[in-house]
Amino acid sequence: MDLNSDLGEGFGQWTLGDDDALLGVVTSANVACGFHAGDPVILRRVCDRAAAAGVAIGAQVGYRDLAGFGRRFVDVEPDALTQDVLYQVGALEAFARVAGTRVRYVKPHGALYNAIVAHEEQAAAVVRAVAEYDRTLPVLGLPGSAWLRLAAEAGLTVVAEAFADRAYTPEGTLVSRRLPGAVLHDAGEIARRCVAMATGEPIADVEGGALRLDPQSICVHGDTPGAVDIARRVRTALGEAGVALAPFAP
């Protein structure tokens, strides 16, 4: 099982999350590429430290929306979105290369991640960017999404992920952050849910039903309060359950 987290999400003097601590816990790092967060200094530092820690680097691409942290839908034209994604992956690739490694996968961020669950045109635009850049790059996303379906149809390797600290609808989609209870905070509960996900057991959806997920990677958000403690609890619980951790894209 892979354990991933969103890193490099500061900008200038503004910081978010503890990248260094999380790099000691996760196996894959979704690194912000400058559009929703991240700047050249931050990208360089995170890539250097991820490479030193043996953590796989992924490009976390998003809408051009620094003010909204990429969590607002942007009705961008598909061709422009393709070029935006190419730009972001290329920027991160430069810092990964000088750190002695490379970008190993692509994961959309925030509103773009949620939009391309159902938005066919934008999903296709992101798929096209990855396919044109490097068809060997796996893509990470929500099971059942248009994004993963179209990526698979294009011959890309698709990786299903689940979220440690997010509530799910009965349909297997994420509960909107605008709704109460969308983000989970109890580290013990989160760890138990992750063990269930990793071992094929159901978790409770937001309505109390049984929802079975089959992820290849579990995401612990780096900007959740207590993120480092949550990530450590999750890693420990998975280890105690006999779940081996390793990057899905070594």
From TrEMBL:
Gene3D superfamilies: Glycoside hydrolase/deacetylase. Its EC number is 3.5.2.9. The keyword Nucleotide-binding applies. One of its GO terms (biological process) is carbohydrate metabolic process. Keywords: ATP-binding, Hydrolase, Nucleotide-binding. One of its GO terms (molecular function) is 5-oxoprolinase (ATP-hydrolyzing) activity. Forms a complex composed of PxpA, PxpB and PxpC. Belongs to the LamB/PxpA family. This is 5-oxoprolinase subunit A. The lineage of its organism: Bacteria, Bacillati, Actinomycetota, Actinomycetes, Geodermatophilales. The gene is pxpA.
